[in-house]
Amino acid sequence: MTEETMASESIDSILHEERLFQPPVTFATKARINTRERLQELQHQAENDYENFWAGLARQEITWQRPFQSILDSSRAPHFRWFHDGLLNVSYNCLDRHLAQHGQKTAIVFEGEQGDTRRISYTELHREVCRFANTLKNIGITHGDRVVIYMPMIPDAVIAMQACARIGAIHSVVFGGFSAESLKDRIEDAGARMLITADGGHRGGKIVELKAAADKALAKGCPTIEHVIVCRRTGHDIDMHAGRDIWWTDAVADAGEKCEPMWVDSEHPLFLLYTSGSTGKPKGIQHSSGGYLLGAITTMKWVFDIQDNDLFWCTADIGWITGHTYVAYGPLAVGATMLMYEGAPTVPDGGRFWDICERHKVSIFYTAPTAIRALMKLGDALPARHDLSSLRLLGTVGEPINPEAWMWYHHVIGQERCPIVDTWWQTETGCHMIAPIPGAMPTKPGSCTLPLPGITADVVDEQGNSITQPDKGGYLVIKKPWPSMLRTIWGDDQRYISTYWDKFSGKYYLAGDSARRDQDGYFWIMGRADDVIKVSGHRLGTMEIESALVAHPRVAEAAVVGRPDEIKGEAIFAYVVLRGKRPEGGIDEVLTGDLRTWVGEQIGPIAKPDDIRYADNLPKTRSGKIMRRLLRTIARGEEITQDTSTLENEGILLQLQGKE
Ligand code: WTA
């Protein structure tokens, strides 16, 4: 099918999965990889000489202080090491090496929610990072120390991350939407010595009280924190604790503008990033320096086809992996200009993203399906008010995109001119794994297409055998280690092994997703195969929400599942057994409100259950396991086809269904 015939199809008739979009000629002509042959050449290199494929890229793309000799060391598998005897500094690679030729080039274009803007050149960014790095050193932060960053989406957050990288400190960014309780848990798990925060941030027309939450976290524990650096963003009144808290501007006042980077070995941890898994406790995903940086660079080039005159905008918050790889590191490592926006997409109205694209002439735009669906719902009139002709490439990440939203993105935002890169990856993988190379690969709405060169993704059955039959679902695995993979879970090697490697006896990395491949080998992600849900693209563990609920004095037991949601992808559905009596008719709006607030305080507002249903019991198997599949069926409002004869009390089914 040609592009033209596709374009004339109406948006309503899009649920045929066989439609194929060739790379638009105008895009492909200028793209870095723009022929199938060039792409195949890369794939062949990777297949024929795996290690040298990656080593060649690592030599070409990274400036090493001392070149590596060892490529892949599997002697401590699954703790793989890449380029481990090489020395480098990630901040040097993101900043210093661009200065001679591109010092005046804009590194960051910033726009605050209230409309304030700031442009920062590479030279200026380098200076600010050096000053802040010196400040950290002056305060006594050294190589290997953990620094927690809890900040809004402002350039200072990137400066803080880069400054840590510059001196070999390990940052752990905590999403600003997480509560004091979550912040405390992460600080304590990482044993952080310092916290960097802000008085607040602007989001959705309100102030996010970051400093107040930080104070609350520190009041409850976190004995390892010695100092708190506070960036002034909102200027509203906050408490400062004498002896502990320092304003950023005061802290950097005497700091020098030159800071020699600390050369670290390639395996030195660049950062920890906590993410949710199948247990109640978030895990600190540990990433390396050299391998991670290589993944960020190669994917900026392959998937985003980044060019010198692009304005790259990834809307992800720095609190998520996407904000690490495609805000704080990737764009800078390739010397690009990126846009950072502080606030919500709907302030002052749902046209804000398109307004920003128009005014700043964004050329590459990368966001989550949730945002696309929410903005699609607001109608075509908002984007139509803006000139979107600067856009040349669109991307999505974080959850499956439904074909309808894909088509809207394609027609209304991309105006049929821009390829869409649907990128599958994870906090653990560090960078894109399965994604189109937009100048050389046809795309299909809803599919993340094919693995990138050097990425051995596959779909396997329970025994680990490749599933060759088209459209049959199985486990998504990666069969060989890759440079930007996680190295371990901070402080818990055993959990690293059991979560990702035990399922297939250490042979394959288990992603935790289920997927299928179609007759062309294209991957279709079907969702998580574990107890993780994706709510508005945010990754949450159902067990974490359950632990939060049972910590409430009135709750005896809780089970949480995801149910499909038109905008958010998934919504949170909680079944609750109370201590004492179930509310009359299963309804107690006051308690439901209290429980939602409670979960918001325990984890963060993103984890508040959308539905809470009260029952006298949870459905359990004879061995006492909660029948989650049954709960999912009920949450979806579907008919129950499972065998429920083992239930002790079948009567609770009516309660769970909200019918009694
Ligand atoms: C899901 C986000 C479908 C998937 C970068 C994965 C996706 C989890 C896609 C990781 C995609 C991410 N299509 N599903 N393009 N990208 N996912 O760690 O379930 O926040 O395992 O990393 O998001 O979420 P995380």
Which helices and strands occur, and which strands form pairs?
Elements: H1 3-8, H2 25-30, H3 36-48, H4 50-61, E1 72-73, E2 81-82, E3 87-88, H5 90-102, E4 106-111, E5 117-121, H6 122-139, E6 146-150, H7 155-167, E7 170-173, H8 180-190, E8 194-198, E9 201-203, E10 206-208, H9 210-220, E11 227-231, E12 245-247, H10 248-252, E13 264-265, E14 271-275, E15 283-287, H11 290-302, E16 311-314, H12 321-333, E17 337-341, H13 352-360, E18 364-367, H14 369-377, H15 381-384, E19 393-397, H16 403-413, E20 420-423, E21 457-460, E22 474-478, E23 488-489, H17 493-500, E24 509-517, E25 523-528, E26 532-535, E27 538-541, H18 542-550, E28 555-565, E29 569-578, H19 589-602, E30 611-614, H20 628-635, H21 652-656
Parallel strand pairs: 4-17, 6-7, 6-8, 7-14, 8-11, 11-12, 16-17, 16-18, 18-19, 19-20, 29-30
Antiparallel strand pairs: 1-2, 3-13, 4-5, 9-10, 14-15, 15-23, 21-22, 22-24, 24-25, 26-27, 28-29
Helix pairs in contact: 3-4, 5-6, 5-7, 5-12, 6-7, 8-9, 11-12, 14-16
The structure holds 5'-O-[(S)-ethoxy(hydroxy)phosphoryl]adenosine (WTA).
Structural features:
660 residues; binds 5'-O-[(S)-ethoxy(hydroxy)phosphoryl]adenosine; 8-stranded mixed beta sheet; 21 helices; disordered N terminus; 30 strands; 7-stranded mixed beta sheet; alpha/beta
Helix tally equals 21
- Average of the residue pLDDT scores: 94
Number of strands: 30
Strand content: 15-25%
Bound compounds, each kind once, are: 5'-O-[(S)-ethoxy(hydroxy)phosphoryl]adenosine
Radius of gyration: 24 Å
Helix content: 25-40%
- The chain-level structural class is alpha/beta
Order of strands in the sheet with most strands: 12-11-8-6-7-14-15-23
Spans of at least 5 consecutive residues whose pLDDT stays below 50 are 1-16
Taken from the alpha-carbon principal axes, the silhouette is globular
User: Mind describing the biggest β-sheet?
Assistant: 8 strands, mixed
Taking the alpha carbons of the first and last residues, their distance comes to 53 Å
